[in-house]
Design a protein that fits this description.
The complex is a heterodimer of chains A (332) and B (321). Chain A has no helices and 21 strands. Chain A is an all-beta fold and 332 residues long. In chain A, the strands form 4 sheets. Chain A has a 7-stranded antiparallel beta sheet, with no helix packed on it. Chain A has a 6-stranded antiparallel beta sheet with strand order 3-8-5-6-7-4, with no helix packed on it. A 5-stranded antiparallel beta sheet of chain A has the order 2-1-9-20-11, with no helix packed on it. In chain A, strand 16 and strand 17 form a beta hairpin. Chain A starts with a strand and ends with a strand. Chain B is mainly β and 321 residues long. Chain B has 3 helices and 27 strands. In chain B, strands 4, 6, 10, 11, 12, 13, 14, 18 and 19 form a 9-stranded antiparallel beta sheet that branches. In chain B, strands 1, 5, 7, 15, 16, 17 and 20 form a 7-stranded antiparallel beta sheet that branches. In chain B, strands 22-23-24 form a 3-stranded antiparallel beta sheet. In chain B, strand 16 and strand 17 form a beta hairpin. Classes of the chains: A mainly beta (332), B mainly beta (321). Chains A and B meet through strand 8, strand 20 and strand 21 of A and helix 2, strand 21, strand 24 and strand 25 of B. Strand 21 of chain A pairs antiparallel with strand 21 of chain B, so a sheet runs across the interface.
Chain lengths: 332, 321
């Protein structure tokens, strides 16, 4: 399985997004939509105990107060989580009971995060999340492509007062990793790219140095010269860096459009964005958008816009879900 | 993935009792010759006065081809009819109910599956190979669907219940091979005849398949349980991965219940705004304060439950507050 994970989006690149309602496009953040870990034991259909591996953070602090977990298609109501041994309150809280294997991903699902109670005058609100193929390009045995990827809402709101539509936005440029042939505080040149991409193909994407003394340092790209393979930065890197030694770098996929607030519909005028659709298993949205092949290579991203609409006069109550399905083939 | 290994597939989606590999139909025997299928094709209803035969499967050139390995799976909704007293010993004994048997063209049992009814509304599955080996599984609860995945590889037997490997009580030695090139398949038919503690099965069956190779890959078991058996015959489903992300949120509603109905698969609740909510009768719950006796009247609740400030839950076809 390609390791596709869902992240919140943020105004700036390479940052944590702690305000869920601000996941309204822009760059992929470093924050997962929900904290996750994996199962340490198989879960049969009627098992009432779950055993989870300790999260990669080493702590269960993010899981405190969580009432629900998501494994595959199933949502499970659980007792308070303090360690990896969890007692089930109710299996199949969303009406779907599945079996789960050791290593399956477990997500701590929380309400009042991705959506809130603020709607526009059309009783709509919008959010944008980023789907990233996290299989490693550094480990050849772990490289997984997600092919023929499509997205649909497999389980819509249980409440008929609420409806969900989704749209897909593909980045204008994809993930790239290579080594510079020359660089300075204000630009990075990679002559091996010369002639491969159009001018400004990577504009507004985030370039980050990988490894070495400046590992993790990055800048937004203000322009790209396709004939020379030169990335020009919006703001300069420190002049104290040693620019005589070339560096490995990566360019993250270009950001999505960012809306002013969760009340504003994203623009669907670009060929990189689909309109909002009501989807189902038989009518999913393909990632073949804006000339893309529909393949998510390692570190590639697609952005998923969600439109939630409620009927007039609705008041609030608790406990509802939608389930968004990713369907894909893999290679690797 | 197993397309070439698949030798039998019964989905019980319709009363035609269509066998998907040989493209034949099972024959219904007994005094009741009308098969009964649960709503939405979710299972075959076994009956006291009826059994099914798949003898045509062998005759049409699609033998099961079982020799020294096979894999089979099925969904079973068990019934428990308690114990019976052995009139000779006076002991309470299990009642044995047939589920499925495969017999070669010399009427020898290749393998068979029976259920033993136990105390406390629990059953156990009894799997036999040839005439010399049987394995009894762990107990499982009656009156809820269970999935069974049985693997024989010529030297060992594995039985998975609901996706987890069951411990088994084995009796006799495992045969190195079993004859099954040409086979008849029987459902709810006791090959050995009837004794005082043998009764027909009245549970439900669904999605039976038989492969003539051994396969205990847990990801395959998971796929069959979670996604069904269509991908045995649909090549486009072979490599498709499905991953679901639940987005949980508080949702608006001004529910006033005006009607309710169930059709075994879903429960529908009519609302005062003219819309209809649909919930699974297996498990579904929403928070909702109820204080209007007219609403609870539509929900068919008993008088002592007519007013509640808690949840409305739909559990096992019953609406509960």
């Amino acid at each position: 399985m390609a390791d596709i994970k869902i992240y919140l989006t943020s105004l700036e690149p390479d940052m944590e997004q702690t305000i869920y309602s601000q996941s309204i496009g822009g760059h992929i953040s470093n924050s997962l939509l929900y904290p996750e870990t994996t199962l340490s034991d198989t879960v049969a259909l009627y098992d009432a105990s779950l055993y989870l591996n300790t999260p990669s953070s080493g702590s269960w602090s993010e899981w405190q107060g969580v009432e629900y977990i998501n494994i595959g298609q199933e949502v499970i109501k659980v007792n308070p989580i303090t360690n990896g041994s969890i007692k089930v309150v109710q299996r199949g809280y969303n009406g779907i009971v599945n079996m789960h294997l050791v290593g399956d991903v477990v997500r701590a699902v929380s309400a009042s995060k991705i959506f809130n109670d603020i709607f526009n005058e059309d009783r709509k609100q919008y959010r944008c999340i980023a789907l990233k193929n996290t299989s490693s390009v550094h480990n050849p045995s772990d490289i997984k492509f997600s092919i023929r990827t499509s997205i649909y809402v497999s389980q819509s709101s249980l409440n008929s007062d609420s409806s969900i539509k989704i749209a897909v936005e593909m980045p204008k440029s994809r993930y790239l990793q290579n080594t510079s042939t020359k660089w300075s505080s204000s630009y990075l040149k990679d002559s091996t790219l010369a002639g491969q991409y159009a001018d400004n193909h990577f504009k507004d994407a985030y370039l980050k140095i990988v490894g070495g003394s400046y590992d993790g340092q990055g800048r937004l790209i203000s322009s790209y010269d396709g004939s020379t393979g030169t990335f020009v930065f919006y703001s300069s890197m420190p002049s104290t860096y040693n620019y005589t030694t070339n560096v490995s770098y990566e360019v993250l996929p270009a950001p999505a459009q960012r809306i002013k607030s969760g009340l504003v519909s994203p623009s669907a005028t670009s060929s990189f964005v689909t309109p909002f659709y009501v989807t189902s298993k038989n009518s999913p949205i393909s990632l073949k958008v804006g000339g893309n092949s529909g393949i998510l290579y390692p570190n590639d991203i697609c952005y998923l816009w969600i439109e939630r609409e409620i009927v007039k006069g609705a008041s609030s109550f608790d406990s509802n879900f939608i389930t968004i399905n990713l369907s894909y083939n893999t290679t690797g | 993935m197993f397309r070439t290994d698949l030798k039998l597939m019964l989905k019980f989606d319709t009363t035609s009792l269509y066998e998907g590999v040989s493209n034949t139909y099972l024959t219904v025997y007994g005094s009741d010759t009308e098969p009964e299928i649960l709503a939405r094709g979710s299972g075959y209803v076994m009956k006291n006065d009826q059994y099914l035969s798949g003898s045509g499967i062998a005759d049409t050139g699609y033998p099961l081809g079982i020799s020294n390995s096979f894999t089979m799976g099925l969904w079973l909704y068990p019934v428990n009819i308690g114990l019976v007293t052995n009139e000779i010993t006076g002991d309470a004994e299990s009642i044995i109910m047939p589920v499925l048997s495969v017999v070669d063209n010399n009427s020898n049992v290749v393998f068979k599956i029976e259920e033993h009814t136990l105390e406390n509304n629990k059953n156990a599955l009894d799997f036999s190979l040839g005439s010399s080996y049987s394995a009894l599984t762990e107990e499982y609860d009656a009156e809820q669907w269970h999935h069974f995945w049985i693997v024989y590889d010529g030297s060992s037997v594995l039985i998975y219940i609901d996706g987890k490997l069951s411990s088994i009580q084995e009796d006799g030695s495992i045969p190195a091979s079993v004859g099954g090139a040409v086979c008849d398949v029987f459902i709810n038919h006791s090959i050995a005849g009837y004794d005082y503690n043998i009764a027909k099965n009245t549970g439900y069956l669904d999605d039976i398949f038989i492969l003539n190779t051994a396969n205990s890959t847990t990801s395959n078991i998971q796929r069959v349980i979670n996604q069904g058996i269509d991908y045995f015959v649909n090549s486009t489903l072979d490599e498709i991965e499905e991953d679901g992300y639940a987005l949980y949120f508080n949702d608006p509603s001004t529910i006033t219940v005006t009607s309710s109905i169930d059709d075994m698969s879903y429960i529908y609740i009519g609302l005062n705004n003219g819309k209809i909510m649909r919930g699974s009768p297996l498990m579904w719950e929403t928070r909702r304060n109820f204080s209007d006796q007219r609403e609870t009247g539509f929900l068919g609740l008993t008088s002592d439950l007519n007013v509640s400030n808690g949840f409305i839950s739909l559990v096992d076809d019953i609406i509960r507050l």
